[in-house]
Amino acid sequence: MEQIIIHVDMDAFFASVEVRDNPVLRGKPLIIGSLPRERGVVATCSYEARKYGVHSAMNIKEAYRLCPHGIYMHPNIDKYRAVSAQLREIWGAYCSVAETIALDEAYLDVTAQAGNLEGARKIAKVIKQRTKEELGLTCSVGVAYSKTAAKTASEEKKPDGYFEIPTAQDFVNLIIDRDVRVIYTVGERTARKLNAEGIRTVRDVRENSEMVIRLLGKQGQWITRLALGIDERKVTPGRPQDAKSISREVTFQEDVRSFELLKDVLVLLALCVERRIRRHELHGDGVTLKLTYADMKGISRSRSPAECDSAASIYREAVRLLGKVEKRPVRLIGVGVYHLSAGEKRQLVMENLLSEAVDGRGSEMKKLLDALQKRYGLDFAGHLEQIFHMDVLHKTVEYMRKRS
What we know:
Elements: E1 5-10, H1 13-21, E2 30-33, E3 42-45, H2 47-50, H3 60-66, E4 71-73, H4 77-92, E5 97-102, E6 105-109, H5 111-114, H6 117-135, E7 139-144, H7 147-154, E8 162-165, H8 168-175, H9 188-196, H10 202-207, H11 209-216, H12 218-227, E9 245-256, H13 259-279, E10 282-283, E11 286-293, E12 298-303, H14 311-322, E13 330-338, E14 341-342, H15 350-355, H16 360-376, H17 390-403
Parallel strand pairs: 2-4, 7-8
Antiparallel strand pairs: 1-6, 1-7, 2-3, 5-6, 9-13, 10-14, 11-12, 11-13
Helix pairs in contact: 4-6, 11-12, 13-14
């Protein structure tokens, strides 16, 4: 094997952490995400809930219809991030490069550490053992010659599974008669295009490669290579500056008609975005506004180049974009910064942010926050940093909506 890659995927991560911390939940259908009476989706759920057809990204109302007796909880993102940091310490001890995909998932290049398949097998066993003993959680692990094959392997024996795919031929033998959606990057929309041409399995892709390329262009070339077991991508450490954009959004529990309220919400969203770009020492030169209307029609508006190195400038640009959209009931609003690049190194703590209130760009934000405090009876003094927590942000926005 020219390279040996391990893919680690935690089993129902959010739900498993909650069960670990509260054993009373064990064996019960647990759904993490929005509550049934709220708008939103399922973030993840226990395997007991999956037996009822509940799955990630499902509308929470549909989840409740399928599993009305389930236990519904809001996610505790800060807790999950803390556990994720512990996981990264374990993963990092056994690889030369780790590519973290999410809080609960990573590719590990163990080529040098393992030496061969048997060595990789031992590393995988140790990772699973340490994860269980030190963190009280289970994970599924795949070992393979490529990233695509490693991810496919980790999904073969879930939960708490292990599977290996040593060669490209082993990969092809495993998936050749499966649905085309088993191929990485083939989602529902792409699958529909392929199905319309009679291409339903990986075997069909291999036998109709020219048609696939003609139909899908560069993506078709990628898909046909994967259908042959070819994936030469390397494990690369993810860097915040590699992200195309950073954004924050909120969904209202009832549609909002007041665009003045939307402007007020943009103050808080701009603060959240500024914190994230500064924390990663980034700078952007474009601002995006995202809206979803009550009829579920979504739009986005952007402006580039645009000044967006502070919460105040992000807010100004977002409000300018908001003034150009159709004014009708809104379900969701979000703001983001894109065209990211490495910026001046600055440590972002709330004291720094508030101290900027006395100079040029900070004074504008202080006035906006003072206006919010007066308008809605909020108290940001000493508590503003909590707004960066997703649950606090949502609760604050809902409080503002009810008071508006």
